[in-house]
Amino acid sequence: TGHGACAAGDVEHMAQLLAREPDAVRVARAIVTFDNSLTASLAQLEPSLVVNEMFGVARAVSSALSSLPVKDAPPAEAAARGALFWAAQGTLAFGLRLLGLQPLDRV
C-alpha cells in the first residue's frame, strides 16, 4: 500500500513490530512529544518550544537510521520502519511550515 493507505490490521501489525525496537519507540515518542508541545507553544506564544521538540525528533531519527534500516529489511519491517520515518518527516515539515520556513522536498 502507498503512504497513508493502510488497513487497521496493517497499522496494528506495524505498531507491534515497531514496539520491539527501542529506537523506533524513541522516534514515536518524539513525534508525540512534538504534538503535545504545540499546545504549550501556542499558550505561551513561545516558538522555541516547537524548535526544541523538532530537534528531539531529528535526534531520535538520526540515531534510529542505522539501527532501523528500511532497505534489505523483511517486507513487513521495512513497511513499518518506512511509515515511522515518513511520519517523522511529516512532523518536521509541519514544524518548519509552522515557523514560516519552507521544508526541502529532497536533500
Keywords summarizing the entry:
107 residues, mainly alpha, 4 helices
Walk me through the topology.
Blueprint: H1 8-19, H2 22-44, H3 47-67, H4 75-98
Helix pairs in contact: 1-4, 2-3, 2-4, 3-4
Q: Could you tell me the strand content as a percent range?
A: under 5%
Instruction: Give me the Rg, rounded.
Output: 15 Å
Secondary-structure element order, N to C: HHHH
DSSP strand tally: 0
Spatial gap, N to C terminus: 25 Å
- Helix content, binned percent: over 70%
Tally of DSSP helical segments: 4
Shape: elongated
Write a structural description.
This protein is an all-alpha fold. The longest helix is centred in the C-terminal third of the chain and has 24 residues. It is elongated, with a radius of gyration of 15 Å. The two termini are 25 Å apart.
